[in-house]
């Protein structure tokens, strides 16, 4: 009887020990599973999925910041040189670039990338030199560079990035058209053309969604992004 009781006690303690071991193994496995980092492929990581898009947008963002600051500096120089209407054109272009800058930083923020503007020094010459730089350097390569940017990110299919880079390209083409007449006069006829430009009143309107820059408000919708005309802001004539 005593033996039977002993057996029963030892059997019970064996069962308890087994259950305890199983419990500890179960807890251990759970903790181990938590400790193992998730493989990268199991998490949707936008920084991996949109690597090229992020690289191109970041590069374009810095370019827009620089253009915005450059046109702003050119505007101030044109005012100093007494070319108020040319200052007005640069003010409109600066506003358009600030729209591009804002849109690119918003897309990057949604992809988890925070960009900060840098304060690189801007070379400013006379108004004549500034106009020449804007067309000969800043705007001369747009039809070569933008198709390259779009081709580079095409496979990642980030529709908003593709759309807003295309909007930016179309706005830059408008800028080129707007200064084309003056640029053609940066040679010997600059003075005559500037005088003609000085006496002509021009109004500038910039779409605050896509940066479209026009001399007259469209009737209903933006010709670039198709949003309602209410997105357009008139750029005031700048003063010193
Ligand atoms: Fe731009
Ligand atoms: Fe627009």
Can you put this structure into words, describing what you see?
The protein has a three-stranded antiparallel beta sheet with strand order 2-1-3. Helix 3 runs antiparallel to helix 4, helix 3 packs antiparallel against helix 5 and helix 6 runs antiparallel to helix 7. The N and C termini lie far apart (111 Å). The N terminus is likely disordered. The chain has two domains: 35 residues; 190 residues, Ferritin, core subunit, four-helix bundle (Ferritin, Up-down Bundle). The chain has eight helices and three strands; from the N terminus they run ααααααααβββ. The longest helix has 34 residues. With 240 residues, it is mainly alpha-helical. The site of one fe (ii) ion (FE2) has 7 residues, from helix 3, helix 4 and helix 7. One fe (ii) ion (FE2) binds next to loops.
Please render the helix and strand layout as text.
Elements: H1 2-35, H2 46-49, H3 51-80, H4 84-110, H5 127-138, H6 142-153, H7 159-183, H8 190-198, E1 204-207, E2 213-214, E3 232-235
Antiparallel strand pairs: 1-2, 1-3
Helix pairs in contact: 3-4, 3-5, 4-7, 5-7, 6-7
Name the hetero compounds present. fe (ii) ion
Helix coverage percent of residues?
55-70%
Coarse structural class: mainly alpha
CATH architecture of the largest domain: Up-down Bundle
Number of domains: 2
* Radius of gyration computed on alpha carbons: 31 Å
Overall pLDDT confidence: 83
Distance between the termini: 111 Å
Helical segment count: 8
State the total count of DSSP E strands.
Answer: 3
- In CATH, what is the class of the largest domain? Mainly Alpha
Remind me, CATH topology of the largest domain? Ferritin
Estimate what percentage of residues fall within beta strands.
Answer: under 5%
How would a textbook summarize the main sheet? 3 strands, antiparallel
The CATH superfamily name of the largest domain is Ferritin, core subunit, four-helix bundle
Strand order of the largest sheet: 2-1-3
Pattern of helices and strands: HHHHHHHHEEE
Global geometry = globular
């Amino acid at each position: 009887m005593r033996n039977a009781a002993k057996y029963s006690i030892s059997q019970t303690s064996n069962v308890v020990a087994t259950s305890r071991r199983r419990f500890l193994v179960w807890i251990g496995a759970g903790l181990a599973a938590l400790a193992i980092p998730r493989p990268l492929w199991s998490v949707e990581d936008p920084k991996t999925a949109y690597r090229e898009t992020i690289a191109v947008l970041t590069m374009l963002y810095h370019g827009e910041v620089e253009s915005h600051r450059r046109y702003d500096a050119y505007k101030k120089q044109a005012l100093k040189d007494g070319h108020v209407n040319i200052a007005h054109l640069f003010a409109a272009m600066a506003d358009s670039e600030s729209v591009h800058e804002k849109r690119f930083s918003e897309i990057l923020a949604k992809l988890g990338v925070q960009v900060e503007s840098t304060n690189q020094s801007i070379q400013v010459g006379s108004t004549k030199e500034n106009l020449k730089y804007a067309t000969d350097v800043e705007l001369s390569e747009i039809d070569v560079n933008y198709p390259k940017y779009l081709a580079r990110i095409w496979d990642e299919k980030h529709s908003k990035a593709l759309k807003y880079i295309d909007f930016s390209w179309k706005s830059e083409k408008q800028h080129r058209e707007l200064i084309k007449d003056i640029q053609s006069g940066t040679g010997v006829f600059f003075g005559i053309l500037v005088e003609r430009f000085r006496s002509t009143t021009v109004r500038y309107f910039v779409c605050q969604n896509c940066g479209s820059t026009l001399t007259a408000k469209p009737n209903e919708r933006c010709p670039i992004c198709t949003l309602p005309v209410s997105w357009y802001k008139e750029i005031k004539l700048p003063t010193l």
